[in-house]
Structures are given as C-alpha cells and as structure tokens.
Amino acid sequence: MSFTGPSVGASGRTARRAFEYGRTYVVRPKGKHQATIVWLHGLGDNGSSWSSLLETLPLPNIKWICPSAPQQPITLFGGFPSTAWFDVNDLSENAKDDMEGLDAAAAYVASLLATEPPEIKLGVGGFSMGAATALYSVSCFAHGKYENGNPYPVNLSAAVGLSGWLPCATTLGKKIEGADESVRRAASFPVLLCHGRGDDVVPFKFGEKSSQKLIASGFQDVTFKAYNGLGHYTIPEEMDEVCAWLNSKLGLEGKV
To answer: What is the pLDDT of residues 49-61, one digit of tens each?
Structure first.
C-alpha cells in the first residue's frame, strides 16, 4: 500500500512523495480478541523483529499489527536510504519535523486500524522512531486531524512509546487548547513512555521532556518509566511493565 503527500519543489510546483510500505506482520490473539495495537519498529528495522517479540508476551487478548516502514532517503545519513517512517535531519530538540512523512505514516497506521471490529479497543505503540510515529498519531487523534487538515478517522484507546520522542512538541499545546473536544480526548487518553538513562541514540532527556510536554498540553494520564543502565534497546523488565500497563488501561481479561 502506498500513501502520497504534497511537497513544494524548488520550482514552486507541488510534487508528491510516494511512500511504499513494506510487509506487515500480524500476531493473532491466543484468547478472546479485545484489543488491536499497531506496533512500529525503529529506524532501519522492519516489522518482523518486533512481531517475534510481541508473540511471546502474556497478552492473549491483543492482536498485534507490525507493519514495515518504506525505504526512503534519510537526511541524517547524508541521503542514504533506510527503512523509516519519516525523514530525520537531526536528532536534536531543534530538529525540523518532516510533516509530510509524519502525516503519511500516521494515516497508514490509522488505515491498519480502521478495519477492526467496532467493539475492539485500538492502540498504537513503537520503539524509537516508531514510538515517535505512535505519539504523533496520538496528537492527531487528540487534535481530530492531521497537520494537512484531513480528519483523523479512528478512535484510539492507548499508546506506548519506548526509547522515543514527541514530534511537533512545541505546537501540541495550542492544538489541544483550541477545542473542547480535543481537551476532553487528551485528558482521558492513557500514554506509557519508557526510556533508558543510558540511551546513546535517542537521549534520555528526549523521553523525559516528551512526557512533560504531553502533560503540559493537557494529557492527564501519562506514565513515564526510567531505567538505569538501559541503552537503546528493550529488556524483559520494560516489557513486563508494558504488559501490566496495557492489561490495566485496556481492561483486558488476561485469559487464554
């Protein structure tokens, strides 16, 4: 499946970037299907590695959808292509967000959830760049639309971000406070963020400040977990936290 978005070229004419997404891996629930979560991998990875891990978790009521990002040139890598949800020009707090790529990725995630049965709770999650995409999806859900103005089509129930960051953090507050419905959605939406203090790829302060920005923007149910000595990877202790949190926030039965 491909998604396109407009971008203005040097000539001033509107060009369109095409995003060709890779293979999607699905982990079927072993018990009663109560929730579906799209889980997004990090830069340079694909959906397979995470689907293998998620399949081992004691969460029998969750269906996991693990898509693979498109290959695209990454500015941070001097234009060298990699699997990525959006372009990254710098890993800094002042980095410019790739709004076209973020909108396309969030729309793709929503399309994967849109065909789920109406009684199923929907969630997003991810690692690193995948966590950033998940959090951007949450901001679109709360705001009710993407940055390009198109309406956000699905009703999310929870989000998890591991070793990631919040894109468009500086503008989130204004988007939320401008509409009563956005304020209501943000206030009741649960978010779990986990980050290692030893992360040498996405600095710990990015995760910490992302949680603070979410709270300052009106998200009242934000949990931030810090892990001493953890680098840019996950550990069983962290995944245990994810399992307990999802069971609690989604009201899962936890039985096969």
So the answer is: 999 999 999 999 9
Provide the 10 A C-beta neighbour count for residue 32: 11
Task: Convert 17-37 into a string of H (helix), E (strand) and C (coil).
Answer: EEEECCCCEEECCCCCCCEEE
What DSSP string runs through the chain?
A: -EEEEEEE-TTS-EEEEEEE----EEE--SS---EEEEEE--TT--HHHHHHHHTTSS-TTEEEEE--PPEEEEGGGTTEEEE-SS--S-SSTTPPP-HHHHHHHHHHHHHHHTTS-TTSEEEEEEETHHHHHHHHHHHHHHHTB-TTSPBP-S-EEEEEEES---TTHHHHHHHHHT-HHHHHHHHH-EEEEEEETT-SSS-HHHHHHHHHHHHHTT--EEEEEEETT--SS--HHHHHHHHHHHHHHHT-----
pLDDT given at position 174:
84
**Mean pLDDT to the nearest integer, 98-104:** 94
Decide if 88 contacts 76 (C-beta within 8 A).
Answer: yes
Cα angle 29-27-5, degrees, rounded to a multiple of 5: 125
β pairing state of 80-83 and 71-74: antiparallel
